[in-house]
Amino acid sequence: MLPDKQPPVTKEARELAKRLWEYHQLRHSIQKSDAILVLGSHDPRVAERGAALWLEEMAPLLIFSGGLGNFTAGVWEDPEAVIFGRIAREMGVPDEAMLLESRSTNSGENIRFTQELLKSKGLDPRSFIIVQKPYMERRAYATFKKNWSDKSVLVTSPRISFENYPSESISLEIIIQSMVGDLQRIREYPKKGFQIHQDIPEEVWRAFERLVALGFDQHLIS
């Protein structure tokens, strides 16, 4: 969980953040696939997007992956996957169409533990739709392709604009902190073998550096 004290979101900071927001999204055209994999987070709208895709018959299997991570440990009592599964059930997805993986605490574990779960069930989907927050689409894609390169994958997120995404529980300050931290990870994690390489345009990296200078540095790798 990020500290309560946050730097002010000035007009400059908002414009810089919008640049990162645009970069983090991949805007894939979603097609029918073998499975929908919803990566856990502190945003229930991600679960709603995954459930809606299942209800639209975009895939026969809906998987929720997530234990308790940075933003939910000590805040939520149940694992992210359990809460997300509950949301999907309330939206009309039957239990037999869902699998829950509730141990993972980061993106790499989301993929690895889901692989283990599917193997234990004798399932081997060839194509996936990944669902994550809008500002984590690119990182989710890069992590999936590093850990599961032989599978086909498309990425999507709740269809909400940058201006409308902040909510009562997810402030714009927290969104900016997350985007800054994830951009650094997109650059650094391929060197550690965690993700595939993704090009970062110069103007996006300059926006990152300026946001760090403005104080949006609380989600950076230590």
UniProtKB/TrEMBL annotation:
Segments forming domain DUF218: 34-152
Family matches, as Gene3D superfamilies: HUPs (3.40.50.620)
Coiled coil: none
Superkingdom, taxonomy of origin: Bacteria
PANTHER family: DUF218 DOMAIN-CONTAINING PROTEIN (PTHR30336:SF20), INNER MEMBRANE PROTEIN, PROBABLE PERMEASE (PTHR30336)
Protein name listed in UniProt: YdcF family protein
